[in-house]
Amino acid sequence: MAVEAVSEQCNQLQEEDTTNENGEYRIRGLHPNCVYRLVLKTPSGQRLHSYPTHYHIMVHFQVNAEDVRNIDFVLTHIDERVDIAGDVVFVDINPPPQYKIGLYKSDNLVHQTTVVAPST
């Protein structure tokens, strides 16, 4: 996989490196006094899910400056399908014959379903 460094502050300067078998990388050619955003990408340029999603680093100009180290990512994988299970508990009231349950993402309704209680 590739680690890409882009500096919006410095005219979209971009450098990248491919990780080795140990996940190590070294990005050369970064300009001093520029803030770079580091992200993980596939060799074809597609963003990878990771934690954290990105890092911001600034390269300082110093004689004999040491490399910036320990900028590590953890790859995460999100399946296309996720099963969600839960219980709806009605406290001190009888359950209604039917009710609606909604699934939200960032305060936006993604899916809603009506639950009908089984007849006894």
Automatic annotation (TrEMBL):
Specify where the region named Disordered lies, as residue ranges: 1-24
Name-wise, this protein is: Bm12135
Phylogenetic lineage: Eukaryota, Metazoa, Ecdysozoa, Nematoda, Chromadorea
